[in-house]
Amino acid sequence: MHHARRPTPSPVAFVLKWVAIAAAVALISVVSITAYAVTSVTQQFSSNAVDIGNPTAAPPAPPPFLGAYEGGFNLLVVGTDNDPNQGVSFGERDATLNDVNILLHVSADHQNAVVVSFPRDLVIPQPECTDPATGTVNEASDAEALNDAWGRGGLACTAATISGFTGVDIQYAAATSFDGVIELTNAVGGVEVCLTGDIADTDSGLYLSAGRTVIQGQDALAFLRNRKGVGDGSDLSRIGSQQQYLSSLLRKIKSESTLSDITKVYGLAQAAAQNIKPSTSLQSPDSMVSLALTLKDIDLAKVVFVSYPVAEYVNDINKVQPVPELADQLFTKILADQPFTLSPDSAPTGSADEGEAAPDPAPTDAAPPADAAPTDSAATPEVIEGLSGQNAAEETCAVPN
Asked: What is the residue range of the signal peptide feature (predicted)?
């Protein structure tokens, strides 16, 4: 009995067969690695979550799947000094302090955002707080420096202090230390900053030449920590440098499509998971994605960075106190979800204006309708005179002390 001879496969078919097998194996590997990476990042992030329980605030709505939140939100970002995890490489302190306190408000229509920096030496009332490490209950205080809040009750106490003082319900909060700043900056490939002159500050370890330079690693941290080498040597000048840095970071993320680069996104996620302590309301990946999607389309010129208005504290020249009238104007706008702008001479303390960056490019196929109504000057956001800050589209340079 004769069997039919099987056709001899051609070299091309043989190669294609193994290419298909290799592609299938690669696809399975990528899916497996991605699933592991997402699970790993999620577990790391969730394990550090802190309940900032605010019984008077409405709980945040569940995040939509891969979509922006509906409505606005408030997020508190805290930078700690002398976090136990940072070791002794940045010096030893008696206690952990919340030295950077930034409140982000995004409007309900997702068209505007305000970023308020609170000086660490701002003397304000603080509520009763419980130390999460020891269980010690710290009584309420009528007048205490803001950066004492972390020692009184960690992230929850810091959020409760700012929420109670401003009247803003804080749904989300996140804290990071020195190492977090370094890793997050490295994850985006560095951030460009500008100086009007050379800075050589032995206190912070900052040594930079005049002009523009991209900083990352220890240089980025030194730039953000530097106080004596910029402006008048105060914490307000340091806030000016931080606003310049954050504005530049936001411009880079939007101009270079960082959020569409899977390598950078994963690097940011890993850096965040390993170095950020979130509130429990922020611990899920859906929450993080939704917040990012809510922010991504806001015009840079409508993201306003502002310093909380202060004056010298009556009992201590090294501390500051609120300027009530100006602070009321600021938070009346925020609480009413109304946009505002700053005056032309509002450059942050210790900074100089360098003109406005190029605006966000409009889609090439976008054109105003033929029957579009003329611009209504009455709809132009109100200018709040006396506030210090900048918008994210403006480029500023740090002025050496």
From this structure: none
CA gap 373, 330 in Å, rounded: 30
Cα 334 to Cα 329: distance, rounded to the nearest angstrom? 9
**DSSP helix/strand/coil, 74:** strand
Q: Where are the domains of the chain?
A: 53-358+385-398
Widest pairwise Cα distance in the chain:
110
* Through-space distance between the first and last CA atoms of the chain, rounded to whole angstroms: 99
| Tokens, residue 39 | 């699970």
What pLDDT, on a 0 to 100 scale, did the predictor assign at position 8? 56
What does the pLDDT look like over 68-92, one tens digit per residue?
Answer: 778 889 999 999 886 555 555 555 6
270, two tokens: 């890993």
Which of 373, 391, 371, 395 has the alpha carbon at shortest distance from 381?
391
Distance of alpha carbon 399 from alpha carbon 374, whole angstroms: 41
pLDDT of 205 higher than 50: yes
- Please state, in angstroms and rounded to a whole number, the distance separating the CA atoms of residues 233 and 162: 25
Chain segment 324-367, per-residue pLDDT in tens: 999 999 999 999 999 999 999 898 888 988 644 434 444 434 44
β-pairing, 394-398 vs 129-130, is unpaired
CA distance 263 to 187: 9
The mean predicted confidence, pLDDT, of the chain is: 79
d(CA 272, CA 314): 40
Closest CA to 400 of 263, 240, 291: 240
Residue 276, φ and ψ in degrees, nearest 5: -115, 135
Checking 272-275 for CB contacts under 8 A at 24+ apart, the result is: 272/41, 272/45, 272/180, 272/184, 273/40, 273/41, 273/42, 273/44, 273/45, 274/44, 274/183, 275/176, 275/177, 275/179, 275/180, 275/183, 275/184
- DSSP three-state, residue 139: coil
- According to CATH, the topology of domain 53-358+385-398 is Aminopeptidase (3.40.630)
CA distance 288 to 349: 32
Q: State how far the Cα of 67 lies from the Cα of 69, in Å rounded to an integer.
A: 7
